[in-house]
Design a protein that fits this description.
The protein is an alpha+beta fold and about 80 residues long. The protein is built from 2 helices and 3 strands; from the N terminus they run E-E-E-H-H. It has a 3-stranded antiparallel beta sheet, with no helix packed on it.
């Protein structure tokens, strides 16, 4: 894939923005103005938020102990 073009102007002030690839599973290029922060193209914020939520769920599941047959049997005898 081609390198991001660093020549886009900030929609608010017109200064050139830094462009960089998001370091996640989704392949998007984010635009950042030094004064006004990140600018997202259509649907990019949703894609990043979904990926962050997926990572958080995976981390929670990784920390939980899997249910065993012993756990199920013990719950039946309570």
């Amino acid at each position: 894939s081609e390198e991001p073009n660093p020549e886009l102007p900030c929609p608010k002030c017109g200064d050139k923005m830094l462009r960089f690839r998001y370091a996640g599973k989704v392949d998007i290029v984010l635009d950042q103005c030094a004064r006004h922060g990140l600018w997202f193209d259509r649907d990019e914020l949703d894609e990043v938020q979904m990926e962050v939520e997926e990572r958080e769920i995976a981390e929670k599941l990784k920390d939980e102990r899997p249910i065993t047959m012993f756990d199920i049997a013990r719950s039946l005898w309570k």
